[in-house]
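Example for tutorial group B:
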């Protein structure tokens, strides 16, 4: 197999410092495949093991990779308050079925600075009774921040759950002007 052929299968990763701590970004030739919060060494290593088992190839650290360059630029601009939406190719291969459908609707239909209820989002994909399943889909989002699961909240005004932790969710919503900046 040519070295070009191996590159075709490559999964590359880097860690970017942000206002909510280090984010692991991983990409394939299809697009950004994974964003992982709180990417300390331990979290990063677990995430890379998970990616290797799911994608069948060991991710390679390549901060200079053209596959990652645009994602890094857009993530940094977002956290600097200079960018409101992501325009990146996404690789959805880590998620399937209903979860993928809900996340694609979220990415396309819930813009910066707005929020949507779990039940509302379920209704948008034709499953109005599936608020809890939407919560599960948000929890399994392999592309948080870029696919903005932080914008999904409880209809009663509660903030809802969040894979990255509630403090992170509050900071993202504050960045987007939905919530006041946290005082503490």
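The residue assignment follows.
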């Amino acid at each position: 197999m040519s070295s070009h052929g191996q590159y075709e299968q490559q999964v590359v990763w880097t860690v970017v410092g942000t206002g909510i701590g280090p984010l692991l970004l991983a990409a394939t030739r299809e697009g950004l495949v994974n964003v992982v919060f709180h990417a300390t060494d331990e979290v990063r290593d677990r995430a890379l093991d998970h990616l290797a088992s799911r994608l069948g190839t060991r991710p390679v650290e390549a901060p200079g990779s053209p596959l990652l360059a645009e994602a890094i630029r857009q993530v940094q601009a977002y956290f600097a308050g200079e960018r409101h939406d992501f325009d990146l190719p996404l690789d959805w291969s880590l998620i399937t079925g209903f979860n993928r459908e809900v996340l694609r609707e979220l990415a396309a239909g819930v813009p910066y600075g707005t929020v949507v209820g779990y039940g509302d989002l379920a209704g948008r994909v034709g499953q109005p009774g599936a608020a809890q399943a939407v919560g599960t889909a948000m929890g399994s989002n392999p592309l948080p921040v870029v696919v903005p699961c932080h914008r999904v909240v409880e209809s009663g005004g509660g903030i809802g759950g969040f894979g990255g932790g509630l403090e992170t969710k509050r900071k993202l919503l504050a960045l987007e002007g939905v919530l006041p900046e946290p005082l503490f």
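The helical segments are 3-8, 41-55, 66-79, 97-109, 118-124, 131-139, 166-175. Compare this with the pattern of hydrophobic and polar residues in the output above.
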